[in-house]
């Protein structure tokens, strides 16, 4: 009889857990729908501004400022002719008494002269100066040259998304999974910068997509925290460990839930992320979703409290 009682309790706990997960999924869907609705409203607002600006241009009227006072550099429509002019140029253009505005010419790319110092090589990887990179490598400079944090040109160009430099470094023997002092690889940095094409190139050259840094964070953790949905989707389709825990026991789903990244949450769940995985604090993603409701309730109560105090007669 005691055994039957224990089985009954276990079954009851499982049913409660499943109910919590289903409620959490419903709340996630609700939040995602709200976010998508907000995006539609924002897009509608920008579209109406573009439409009104186009109408103003056709009618010869000055365009209105866009919503939220995010006005771009203002261009004015000439009363006669309907052409556009910039502030400071009188109607009729520069040919009517105003000095002509010189058109800036692009600076010529000069060949790199003299040896390239390691500091300049690493700086060029950030700035996208391929000529400096080529000169350094042509002179026999090691592609894995790094700074005091063990960050190489490959790390830096991955963060910035300079594909030509990445290609050049890899073609010249750069170590694709070179670790910096935090054990981050170029893939971690490409995920942090949000450059999917860089991730794909590094992957093609043999990068480990499940590599962990010193915090035991995988590229999936990094892409989730920085909110790069396209990279998250790519990593999942490549078969990375979706439930891999970091040093705190958090999976990517913990991170996405804590940061309210609803689209990423939905994608992770659809591809098998465990909503009942416990971190070192004993919290599951389901617990964190339920905390949204508590936080929302507390925020509403805090907002209503001053109003109630104001209504109390003196």
Find the CATH superfamily of the domain at 113-208.
Ankyrin repeat-containing domain
Instruction: Please give the largest β-sheet.
Output: 2 strands, antiparallel
CATH top level class name of the domain at 113-208: Mainly Alpha
Helical/strand content category: mainly alpha
Mean pLDDT: 80
Helix content: 40-55%
Low-confidence stretches: 65-96
Helices and strands, in order, run as HEEHHHHHHHHHHH
Reported CATH architecture of the domain at 113-208? Alpha Horseshoe
Write the CATH fold name of the domain at 113-208. Serine Threonine Protein Phosphatase 5, Tetratricopeptide repeat
Coarse morphology: elongated
How many helices? The count is 12
State the end-to-end distance: 65 Å
Total number of beta strands: 2
**Physical arrangement of strands within the biggest beta sheet:** 1-2
Share in β-strands: under 5%
Cα radius of gyration in angstroms? 28 Å
Brief digest:
This protein is mainly α.
Can you put this structure into words, describing what you see?
This protein is 54% helix and 1% strand. It is built from twelve helices and two strands; from the N terminus they run αββααααααααααα. A two-stranded antiparallel ribbon has the order 1-2. Strand 1 and strand 2 form a beta hairpin. It starts with a helix and ends with a helix.
List the helices and strands and how they pair.
Elements: H1 2-59, E1 76-77, E2 84-85, H2 118-127, H3 130-138, H4 153-160, H5 163-171, H6 186-193, H7 196-204, H8 219-225, H9 229-237, H10 252-258, H11 262-270, H12 285-311
Antiparallel strand pairs: 1-2
Helix pairs in contact: 1-11, 1-12, 2-3, 2-4, 3-5, 4-5, 4-6, 6-7, 6-8, 8-9, 8-10, 9-11, 10-11
């Amino acid at each position: 009889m005691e055994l039957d009682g224990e089985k009954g309790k276990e079954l009851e706990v499982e049913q409660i857990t499943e109910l919590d997960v289903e409620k959490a999924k419903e709340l996630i869907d609700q939040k995602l729908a709200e976010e998508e609705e907000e995006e539609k409203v924002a897009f509608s607002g920008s579209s109406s501004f573009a439409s009104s600006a186009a109408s103003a241009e056709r009618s010869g009227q000055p365009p209105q400022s866009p919503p939220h006072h995010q006005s771009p550099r203002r261009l004015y429509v000439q009363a006669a002719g309907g052409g556009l002019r910039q502030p400071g140029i009188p109607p009729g253009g520069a040919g009517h008494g105003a000095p002509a505005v010189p058109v800036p010419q692009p600076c010529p790319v000069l060949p790199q002269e003299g040896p390239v110092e390691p500091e300049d090589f690493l700086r060029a990887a950030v700035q996208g100066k391929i000529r400096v990179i080529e000169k350094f490598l042509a002179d026999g400079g090691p592609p894995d040259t790094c700074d005091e944090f063990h960050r190489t040109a490959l790390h830096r160009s991955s963060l910035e998304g300079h594909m030509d430099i990445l290609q050049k470094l890899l073609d010249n023997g750069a170590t694709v999974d070179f670790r910096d002092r935090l054990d981050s690889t170029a893939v971690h940095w490409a995920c942090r910068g949000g450059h999917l094409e860089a991730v794909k190139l590094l992957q093609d050259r043999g990068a480990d997509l499940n590599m962990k840094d010193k915090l035991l964070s995988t590229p999936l953790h990094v892409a989730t925290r920085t909110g790069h949905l396209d990279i998250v989707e790519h990593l999942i389709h490549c078969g990375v460990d979706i439930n891999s825990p970091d040093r705190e026991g958090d999976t990517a789903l913990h991170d996405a839930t804590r940061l309210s990244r609803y689209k990423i949450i939905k994608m992770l769940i659809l591809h098998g992320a465990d909503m009942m995985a416990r971190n070192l604090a004993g919290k599951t993603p389901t617990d964190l979703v339920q905390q949204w409701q508590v936080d929302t309730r507390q925020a509403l109560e805090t907002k209503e409290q001053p109003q109630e105090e104001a209504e109390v007669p003196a």
